[in-house]
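Lab notebook, bench 4. Still working through the backlog of constructs that have no structural model yet. Next entry is a single chain of 223 residues. Request: give me the structure tokens for it.
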Amino acid sequence: MSTPEIRRLPVWGKALRLCHWGMALATLILLCSGGLIRWAPERAQDLDEIHFASAAVLIAALAVRLWLLFAGKRTEQLGALLPNRHRLAQAWAVLRSYLTLGKVRLPRWYAHNPLWAILYLLLFIVLLAQVASGLLLLNHITLLGDLSLRHVHLLGYFVILGFTALHILASFFHDAKGDSSDISAMVSGQRIFIVEESPTQPPRDDNVVVTLGPAKFRKSEKP
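Model written out:
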């Protein structure tokens, strides 16, 4: 039986990782401060300052992340998030793994989780709406036509709260059931890939490299 080949390859650039952790930290503080403002209005003045400072960090990180969608590296660009037939099939496999609590094996992918990639795009839209409604409320504008901006902001709060909780659970699930070290990858920028030799093929010599793409694994000989 051949030994699986383990590779640790760079996937996430420094700019994307800084945006990710900046958005994550700012979002957590915004969720906590926003909830406390609602349930402890007597502390609203102090909490408002924290809320606005965190919102500024979120806006800056989100602006850079949106810029990376068009000017970043390949794994940071919009094309890496858009679904296609292969990614949709993998997304369904990821969902099946979630629903069976890992009894169905997670598929392997190169960069973005094929299921969450679609949700990231939706999250960016919700965050933009949340920023816009928050800025309007800051300027004491509570209505936009017949639309209550307070209700929009509150709805966005619960959507982001649900997304954050599920995202944290999914990240730990992937590290527990998968083999790609997803959590540490967003710290170091590198993911682990395991390439297994086919049992029907003879062992390869050392003159083999692994070529990885966003769609599938494939091997190629060195020239």
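Notes after review: The mean pLDDT is 84. Strands lie at 5-10, 143-144, 147-148, 190-195, 208-212, 217-221. Flag for follow-up if needed.
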